[in-house]
Amino acid sequence: MDQIMVDEVFMRDVTDVTGAMDAIKSAKIVEFNSLDDAITRREVGITGQSIKQTIPLAVEVDGLGYHYVNYNKVLPVAVAAMKEVASATESVEAEVANLTKLFKSLQKTVNDNAKAITALQKADEGFTKSIADIQAKDSEQDSTLADHTQSITQINSSIAALQEANRTQDTSITAIQTAVTANTQNITDVTNKAVKNQTDILAIQEKNTAQDASIKANADKNAEQDTVISSLRPGANP
């Protein structure tokens, strides 16, 4: 291929070649048998018709309508196309690098999220165990409360029985007092009987006093048990 002058010093109205890739893509590259020589030989080339519109400076048409391709003028377009390919490749490589960086960042985020999920699962297991322990303690407290309730019921039954006995004794005292009043006409007999009855009355009163003390002691014990039960209930201040 002959050398030609392409020094910038001798160039005017310079413009960049654009669309070189599309121009090269439109070129029809073929193998053919040449018919313009006496000896038929196999050639390879670009058809003038295929690049007439995209690289018009590289194509000349003679008076008979035959197309001639100046490969010296096709070469710069081919070089421009290679530059476009190189630029596109660099853009793709940059995008691939950015995507790779983004993928690594996402992968790190996924790993961090996986660790966080594992930590949350462990925390959830701890909470579940704590809830189970609390439920077990509540069950024990409920059982203790039931026992105390049963004890209180028994104490209340004992108090009711004592109160009934007191009412019976009060009735007996009333009957004795009535008998003493009826026998006041016979002073001697009444006096002797009164002394005896007074002794009986004193004994009964002492018994009543002892029973009253017993009732008070049971009431005090009941109050203490109520305080213990209140402290055992969930939410109660210790």
- Determine the number of helices (DSSP H or I, runs of at least 4 residues): 4
Largest sheet: 2 strands, antiparallel
Which strand order does the major sheet show? 1-2
Q: What is the CA-atom radius of gyration, in angstroms?
A: 61 Å
User: Residue ranges: pLDDT <50 for 5 or more in a row?
Assistant: none
Number of strands: 4
Identify the overall geometry: rod-shaped
The percent range for strand residues is: 5-15%
Integer average pLDDT = 86
Alpha-carbon distance between the two ends = 107 Å
3D architecture notes:
Helices cover 71% and strands 7% of the residues. It is mainly alpha-helical and 238 residues long. The chain has 2 domains: 8-90, no CATH class; 142-232. A hairpin with an 8-residue loop joins β1 (29-33) and β2 (42-46). α1 (20-26) packs across α3 (71-182). The longest helix has 112 residues, at 71-182. The model has no long low-confidence stretch (mean pLDDT 86).
Q: What is the gist of this entry?
A:
With 238 residues, the chain is mostly helical. The protein contains four helices and four strands; from the N terminus they run H-E-E-H-E-E-H-H. It has helices at 20-26, 48-51, 71-182, 187-232, and strands spanning 29-33, 42-46, 59-61, 67-69.
